[in-house]
User: Fold these one by one.
Assistant:
Number 1:
Amino acid sequence: MHRPHIRTVAVAVAVATAATGLAGTALALPGAGPDSAAAATSAAAPVVQAARAAAFAHASQTGVGQGDDLRAQDVMLDPEGARHVRFIRTHQGMPVLGGDLVVHLDHGLAYTGVTRAAGHDVEPATTKAKLTPEQAAAKAASVAKGDAGTAHLVVDARGGASALAYQVQVTGSATTESGGSRTVVVDALTGKVRSNTPDSDEFLSPKLIEALRERGETLDPATDNAPLPSGLTAAGSTAVTYPRTVTGSGSSLFVGTVSLTTTQTARTSFLLKDATRYGTETRDAKNKLLENFSKGTKITSTTNKWGNGSVSSRTSAAVDAQYGITKTLDFYKKTFGRKGIANNSKGAQAMVHFGNKIANAFWDPTCNCMLYGDGDGTMFKKPLVALDVTGHELTHGVVEATAKLEPTYVDANGNQFGEPGSLNESLADIFGSNVEFYANNPKNPPNYLIGEKLGLAQKFLRRLDHPSLDKLEGTIDYWSASTYYTEVHAGSGVSSHAYYLLAEGSGKKTIGGVAYNSPTYGGLSVKGIGRAKATAIFYRALTRYMVSTTDFHDARVATLKAAKDLYGASSTEYKTVDRAWAAVNVTAANTPADRH
Ligand SMILES: [Zn+2]
């Protein structure tokens, strides 16, 4: 939020090179900045060149044409030989919203196909605006109720047609709970507002908060108050140089006593910063709506013991935050070789005690940080720092750095709608659950439930095995023609359910002490292939075969391609992917006519 953030023009090249492992993306090189720099210095250069040339040479398939310019955002070299380059597009120098595409090449750099966000030609009818930038900025400021930045011309190729438009970032938006920023796109010919989207991802949607208010539900999560074991602090010793990396002990709100990698800056001075995870650090926003991480107050200790397991210490919430973020980073690195949220070897920062009585948590891609509110003291009584909240929100950061799935529509309250947005929420839940499985903390037993630590009356916020057991957001189990117009958290059930069925299969089972009974469309029975393989397939699909407009039927195709890459087209894994989607009513036969 807060600082200029234009999703579609951010360029960070992350190069993934050949690797072993299920997902095949280990050994990523650090992001090397703009594509030209990466091209000059890495093995990716010939791949990017070949992919760009192929995009123009196969214009009828890729939709890339005259006046278009492609900048590489991601280069993936699969161990099986395939190469994939994710491009963002400009047209006559203007960013193209919804113009993203992934070009696929074989081992010999020959073109094998494309995954593209816009199915149509992105060239607008005219490149001459009728509105001035000032008029567009004024319009944006009035709809988002805040301070408009400079209006920039873009091509808006979302929604099945192209138009010349202005993109404006509006900060201090009174229409956003946290006073954050919004990106407003205004038609440059008619002045119509084409979209008005909050820049940061909120864990709890405005619709859900309203539902809880209507029910008069108050949430007081049970936190853990395990005492600190003694003797876990780093021993002071002679002849050491500072700063140095040490191991401390944190007493959290939700995950018990945990080990934290911290920085010792002097003999009795420690900082909640982890040099082994790209300098990931948690700070205190001191209950302000802080503009950026550098203004946060550093969290220090004289003992290397952090927090006291209760909100009476401001540091306890910071322990949960730092633990959750480092476990999320470790999950992505150990499982997929992903180095940091954007795969650019940068840490993910956090600020706890964000704002005054904010009952939400946010991923802010501009500041590259998590912002955690303390709860509003009435409905939500504790800071929103639970592990799966962090795993969910940071996965939005991963999606932002890869497929950039976008909602198709955002209402005036900030509720988002549409299948690509639903898929984004679903992936955040899927990988958020996987962070719990990875951390495997007995105080926070892993499961396929989301938000089970929030203290909700229904015991969870969402669940992957049988999404419609959620009565708060009205999450759905199966796809139907109306899913395209469903609120994104409610819609997330379709692919979350498909993922669960792929991993664990249909019917009754108890996993880690939790009883599941996953239903299927038409009573189809599905035998799961296991969580590790299901997760590998979804991750590969996200990074290789999804773009900003991917809907559930596209996601089916993307996961089938991923399964084919990893296990072969005649494998049980491939067939189970097909069956899992059929079990949520997503099939080749009921694919809607192209909406893009
Ligand atoms: Zn979300």
Number 2:
Amino acid sequence: MTAHLLVFGSALVCAATLTTRATGATDAPMRQTAPRWTIPATAAEEKNPLPVNAATLAGGKRLYDQKCQNCHGAAGKGDGPDADTKYADTMDLTQAARAARNSDGQVFYKIWNGRLNPKMPAQSADMTRDQVWAVVAYVQSLRQK
Ligand code: HEC
């Protein structure tokens, strides 16, 4: 039953994604990066739909290494070669103190929508939702408890 609903939900999400992409294609190559974090109010409650297991974490790490570590650093400390040192603190994904503002759902929308200043590229055009959720699982595993 639950699995059934999930499948149905994914189909809807896919349809929505395709629509967004079609619209976005007109203003390419501009990325759809929002000026600030765009995070729905319900995000704090949103749970990762993927099982957080070794396979998910390994997939998330692969994507992180390709797309995130240049800014956030190999261990998530905010010290990658492209990091703006002014934001070293907010870019440190390992801090326990910043966990409350980075629930799974909130992290998902930060990655999905990006932000303009300070700049973090939106991934909605480059990754599927499941890929982003895999990255969410991985970066949450870097955070100190
Ligand atoms: C071009 C550099 C850049 C890239 C690439 C990048 N980020 Fe970021 N990220 C930032 C900056 C800058 C901030 C801090 C924004 C702020 O101060 O609010 C940030 C903030 C974040 C935050 C919020 C941290 C907090 O405590 O509020 C998360 C989570 C995050 N990034 C995850 C990722 C992931 C995962 C990826 C790869 C898919 C990624 N970022 C790619 C620059 C980047």
